[in-house]
Amino acid sequence: MGAIYFYHLTRHPLEVTLPQLLGKARSAGWPVLVRGVEDARLDWLDEKLWLGPDDGFLAHGRTGGPHDALQPILLSCETGVAANDALCLMVIDGAEVSAEEVGALERVCVLFDGNDDAAVNHARSQWKVLTEAGCAAQYWSEASGRWEKKHEAGSHGAAAPQDGS
Question: Model confidence over 122-146: pLDDT tens digits?
Fold first, then answer.
């Protein structure tokens, strides 16, 4: 059974943090699905990933292309099994994830904007639902200037972190 990691973005925006996490997932050899909720936002993210630094290039594509199964990273608004047989799911902008997906994948990452109260509340709700369903979860914060694990719940469930620590 996989685990779900919640990343509370307070110092760096999505377009900075996501490529770092994608690089780590790819270093682990995992095909990745990035799930969002709006096509326009994924178009923007697609452009940001293509314009990244030469030494950090992340090959990727949008779902619906002719070579989806070969893409190491797919960007999609769709739920369900990814055409690239993703082992890692990265959820942005409040996209949904199920306990079944967490159990079937190596890793699920939920990235949420710590400066947006609605996003924080949604992430807390996701934490509660998923840990109560038996998913192992970790909460990571960058508030100190570097990423630190602040809270962990085993497969027995635990209350969501309330104070950002």
Answer: 999 999 999 999 999 999 999 999 9
The dihedral over CA atoms of 34, 101, 17, 77, expressed in degrees to the nearest 10, equals 30
The residue type found at 91 is: V
Cα 98 off chain centre by: 13
Helix, strand, coil percentages for the chain (3-state, nearest 5): 35, 25, 40
Give the predicted TM-score (pTM) of the model.
0.90
Alpha-helix residue ranges (DSSP H) falling in the chain: 14-27, 39-50, 99-104, 117-132
Grade residue 53 by pLDDT with cuts at 50, 70 and 90: low
Burial of 121-148, coded b for 16+ CB within 10 Å and e otherwise, reads ebbbebbbbbbeeebbbebbbbeeeebe
Q: CA angle at residue 43 from 78 to 5, to 5 degrees?
A: 55
